[in-house]
Design a protein that fits this description.
A hairpin with a 2-residue loop joins β6 (178-179) and β7 (182-183). Helix content is 35%, strand content 14%. By secondary structure, the protein is of the alpha/beta class.
């Protein structure tokens, strides 16, 4: 054996990925359900059984009275916004760190998204940041439990109830996360979930809405179904709505995936606890800060750098060692995207943003200190249920080595 061969560096460990089979729980159970659905010959959820079974099981898992499946997480949020039925120009407060799927539904229903600042360590909106953005036009509040870390919901709900404002929970990243013993999605008035490829369970695309409010549930159901009153004595199309139905193939996969959800979240928590335990005492880098009274569900694992330059520098170090990561996450607040920054909505109308108060669309950096600090310093690590102790130690060793260079 040559000296070069004998001293060659070991091949880097490849981490499982939620973008393919290596980091997903898809298997024989989903194939069996799909086979049954296809052989039934009924692939529409208006006539089939798989989507209905999934809706019932999902609602029961959360202790919710109503569950309605739809075609995506964006559709779920659109249904929730449509359920609260804002007047044109009314405002829905949301977070400055979010996916566009949480913003465009607000615009499509004629409302104005008003962005609240976030805590720079939990990355979530707070009662204080929401209250600073309230106005007499506020129709609803949309909170996002970012990365699977629940918002501090008690003060948020106290604020909302005092003003009679409904709260929509974006739980796309927070399956089975809990806050003071209650599951995310049951803390506000409506909970919305995503079944997109990278979520805790997946159907590629898909969404679910849960609520205990019968009137809101009725509006969600109708909005999914073009506002057609299925089952009514004299059905009609009652208002403007879309077809956001989940098909039976998706429903079959969702039903099989749901049976695995509790195990998925338990494994993610176990591995996250192990990584946190391995990273104690590092200079310049901190483990995630979990909201008090909450149990994180670990969609991703986020490191926090004490300096703005630490995130990209550590990110580059980790990537060299085969660890995919996202320094600064989405890079910029949602309001810096062209659709909002340049008000590119429907033709040249700027609708509904042309109806906004000047304060509602004031995106000055001084109004969002926590948001800019959070995005400058966060480093998002990939995470999924297929990680082993070896994977966790590989990440921990690389983070420790990289932190020493900062």
């Amino acid at each position: 054996m040559s000296t070069a061969t004998a001293t060659a560096a070991p091949r880097p460990l490849t981490l499982p990925s939620d973008q393919d089979a290596s980091g997903r729980t898809l298997g024989d159970e989903e194939i069996a359900m799909l086979t049954e659905a296809i052989r039934s010959g009924t692939l529409t959820s208006t006539k089939g059984e798989f989507t209905k079974r999934f809706e019932t099981a999902f609602a029961e898992l959360h202790g919710a009275a109503h569950g309605h499946a739809c075609s995506s997480g964006t559709a779920a949020l659109h249904c929730a916004v449509a359920a609260v039925d804002p007047e044109p120009g009314e405002e829905i407060i949301t977070t400055a760190i979010t996916d566009m799927g949480g913003i465009t539904p607000i615009l499509y229903q004629g409302a104005v998204p008003v962005f609240a600042d976030v805590c720079p360590r939990t990355y979530n909106v707070t009662a204080e940041t929401i209250e600073a953005r309230l106005s007499d036009r506020t129709r609803a509040i949309m909170v996002t439990h970012l990365f699977g870390n629940p918002c501090d919901m008690d003060p948020i709900m106290e604020l909302a109830k005092a003003r009679g404002i409904p709260v929509i929970e974006d739980c796309a990243q927070a399956f089975l996360a809990t806050y003071k013993g209650r599951k995310a999605g049951t803390l506000g008035d409506i909970g919305c979930f995503s079944l997109q490829q990278g979520k805790h369970i997946t159907t590629g695309e898909g969404g679910v809405v849960i609520t205990d409010d019968e009137a809101l549930a009725r509006r969600v159901f109708l909005f999914i179904n073009k506002a057609w009153g299925y089952g009514d004595q004299n059905p009609d199309h009652y208002f403007a709505a879309l077809n956001y139905r989940m098909n039976e193939l998706t429903g079959a996969v969702a039903l099989a995936q749901l049976a695995k959800l509790e195990g998925v979240v338990a494994r993610r928590r176990d591995r996250a606890d192990a990584l946190t335990g391995s990273l104690g005492g590092l200079a310049g880098i901190s483990a995630p800060q979990v909201t008090g009274g909450a149990e994180h569900s670990w969609w991703k694992y986020c490191l926090h750098s004490e300096t703005p330059e630490g995130s990209p520098k550590l990110g580059a170090f980790l990537r060299e060692r085969g660890i995919a990561c996202a320094p600064r996450y989405i890079q910029k607040p949602a309001f810096r995207c062209q659709v909002l920054d340049e008000q590119r909505t429907f033709g040249a109308s700027r609708w509904p943003l042309h109806l906004a108060r000047p304060e509602a669309v004031d995106y000055s950096e001084a109004n969002f200190p926590g948001t800019f600090e959070a995005l400058e310093r966060v480093l998002v690590l990939p995470w999924n249920e297929a990680y082993t102790d070896e994977h966790v130690e590989h990440i921990a060793a690389a983070v420790r080595e990289g932190a020493a260079t900062l």
